[in-house]
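[User] I wish I could look at a protein chain and see how it folds. I have put the entry right below:
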Amino acid sequence: RGGAHAHSGGKMASTAAGKQRIPKVAKVKNKAPAEVQITAEQLLREAKERELELLPPPPQQKITDVEELNDYKLRKRKTFEDNIRKNRTVISNWIKYAQWEESLKEIQRARSIYERALDVDYRNVTLWLKYAEMEMKNRQVNHARNIWDRAITTLPRVNQFWYKYTYMEEMLGNVAGSRQVFERWMEWQPEEQAWHSYINFELRYKELGMCHSGIAVSLTRAVLVLVHPDVKNWIKYARFEEKHSYFAHARKLYERAVEFFGEEHMDEHLYVAFAKFEENQKEFERVRVIYKYALDRIPKQDAQNLFKNYAIFEKKFGDRRGIEDIIVSKRRFQYEEEVKANPHNYDAWFDYLRLVESDTGAETVREVYERAIANVPPIQEKRHWKRYIYLWINYALYEELEAKASKRTRQVYQACLELLPHKKFTFAKMWLLYAQFEIRQKNLPLARRALGTSIGKCPKNKLFKGYIELELQLREFDRCRKLYEKFLEFAPENCTSWIKFAELETILGDIDRARAIYELAIGQPRLDMPEVLWKSYIDFEIEQEEYEKTRNLYQRLLQRTQHVKVWISLAQFELSAGQEERLLRCRQIYEEANKAMRSCEEKEERVMLLESWRSFEDEFGTDATKERIDKLMPEKIKKRRKLQAEDGSDAGWEEYYDYIFPEDTANQPNLKLLAMAKLWKKQQQESEAAAMDPDKDIDESQT
């Protein structure tokens, strides 16, 4: 391409002069993207990094004569003027220009520049400050006063001008002038800090009389003329009077503040300061009155600091009762806030009631209980009522034990029982507590009526048990029989009730009736704990020494279940029966059990039976019987089985223990054939391994 260009250039040179060569537009032949792509972000980052590169400093210029200096000044002024002409509103250009003239001691020129800048933007605070600072720096006091006067006249709400002006006058020793500036400032009713600056100014010069009159004027205007009607200003004024021993005036100020704010805008800080003032004056009764007045009127959530200071005061100067009153009132306030935030927070009610019961009278306690029980759970589900019901229980116990009011206790129980939705659920403990209360009041008919009503409305196991226990204590056995009959009609599957009923009849000496109850019980189609019931029936017959009936019971039970514990229990019964043939009977039972358990899939139960049999033979058997039972004992082997996950996938292998019984091995000849096959396979593997090893002798491999 370069050669072609040079050749064309040679031809052009030979053409006539005046004709210009028109460059050709280059055509891009390869339009594929470059291997290294540059993004816009990289370009911007590179440009930013190059901005930070240090430029070489300008060369130093040495001025040797006046002409060069004037030339330098002319060029700099021209530069500044050009910058101002480009944008007059950029105040920094004016300030730089004026400061440059100031550095050359051209004060008049600098003033001229500042005045021109003020014509452009007289609201710029920095401009006024730089202008005044220049005059003060060059000791032009009258010029500086003139600038400050113009500044505070033009912008009276800029506090910085006033602070600088008063500070300058004070530094010059012109106290009267500074006070005059402060007075002019106060006419504009500035913020609180300005008033405090005026007060501190007067205090610095120890002019107490003037200070007192100045504070009286300033704070009266700040507080009473509604310039700054804040509590802290009243407190500062009163503390100032207290500091300078004007105690009567300070007390009047506090009283005027309390009257000024009234009950609508009460602030705890004012009353705390008032109380501390009276405490310093040893007026303890006045302090107590102030605290109580404030606590009765200020909302509790806004009186935390008041509570704290009152408690500290009582600990220092009060008695024990006063301290307890403070603590109790503070805790009562906390509990009130909790129950207001969540009325169904029954734990908060319990704590509140416990506090009230320990400190206040019966009427207050009853009022809090009534408020608590009025918060009925909104949902009729028992789990939401479990905490709520204890409010009623505690209320009834309080009326009975603390208030000694039996009529009110009865009313509480009856109101609670009327409130409960018995069709959905009930609380047996409430019925039983009510019945026990009536018994303590020697009113047995009401107690029976309450329990009878409970069984009729909402029968429960606990209610039946409680009623039966009551009648048992009263030795009313006929009533107990009737209640058991009702109970078993209600819950015929409850084995415990059948057993208790039969035990009652046994205690009363009616054996036939007890046996009939047991027969009815085991004939029920559905029972919750049948094994307990059968065991109780068998124990009952053993106690009556009816061994034949006991054996019949065991046989009837074995027809229903072939559980190993039943066989072992039967064998132990025969052993303990005390008859001559007990060992033979026991051994026969073990034989029958072993035959029956051969078809059982649970091999552990069969092992348990054999171990029980072996322990029996060890104690009572002969050598032949011991040898026989040893032959029956199984061999424990370890096996592996494949596991599957819930989704049907392979979950690996699991090791487990299995039992091989000799009797089962004799009846299954395939097991012997399998053992021989395993032995043959093992021999084959050994021969193959020997054939693959060339170092071994041929005779050894054949062997």
Q: What stands out?
A: Residues 636-664 form one domain.
